Each structure stands twice: as C-alpha cells, then as structure tokens.
Amino acid sequence: MQITARELYALIRDVYHQLQNNLENQLKQFDISVVQFGVIQVLSESEKTSMSELKQKIGCAPSNVTTMVQRMKRDGFVTTTKNPSDQRETFVYLTEKGKETKEKVNVQYKAFLKENFSYFGEEKFITLSEILEDYKLHLLNVEKK
C-alpha cells in the first residue's frame, strides 16, 4: 500500500487532534483547557514569567495569551505584576490555587501519557521519537528557506 504525502499529513493531523481531544477530556474535571494547562506548565518551571516569554513558550498569538491570562487571573490561577524597572513588561505568577491545580493535574497528566502511549513498546517508542525529532529538524530547515 502506498501512502501519499497528503494522506500522511492528514494522519499526523488526526493523531494530534485525537491526543488533544483525549487530554481535553482528562482536564475537564479541573475546569481548565488544554491551553490553560500549557500556561500552568510553563509558569511552574519558574517563579515568574514575562508575558512575552509566555507567548513564545506556548506558541499562541499575543492577543490569545493576553485573553487567556486575564481569564486565568479572574479564575484565581494566576496573578500579574508590572516589572518595576520596565512598566511595559508584565510578569505572570501562579497563585496558590494555580500551584494546587498544577499538582492535581500533573497526577492526571502522567496517567494520560501512560494510557495514550501504552500502544508503543519501548522499541517502537524510541523509533517513533527519533523519526519525529529528525522530521521536526527537517521542517525547521524547510521553514528557514
């Protein structure tokens, strides 16, 4: 059976969307979205993160990140402050509620990863990881051209 580039693209897209859907279903119990989960993960890596750094790390449009942070602030997951040395810069922090949610979500996230990747034996897992890493580098080079 021969697969076309279009079919492979559709397959990769469908796998990505199914993983996102499965994660979304797991996160419903915490009343957060996949993007909010990403924000919490990024913020848990450091004490504070600037809005511009957050935008870069989660890969969303600036207006989307601003709206997301405002919602998360309203819901008590994050707080923000202005940089005292540069008022144009805003720092985002996890609140206690955000930290507690992160701990609870991480337990569920580990279970999500185990369940969704249980299909792969160790050899297939490593092979797929290597292929995807190589392909990602190729795509980065294509983008630069």
UniProtKB/TrEMBL annotation:
PROSITE patterns (alphabetical): HTH_MARR_2
Keywords: DNA-binding, Transcription, Transcription regulation
Domain HTH marR-type: 5-137
Highest taxon in the source lineage: Bacteria
SMART domains: HTH_MARR (SM00347)
Pfam families referenced in this protein's UniProt entry, alphabetically: MarR
UniProt cross-references to InterPro entries, sorted A to Z: HTH_MarR-typ, WH-like_DNA-bd_sf, WH_DNA-bd_sf
Protein name: MarR family transcriptional regulator
Protein species of origin: Bacillus bruguierae
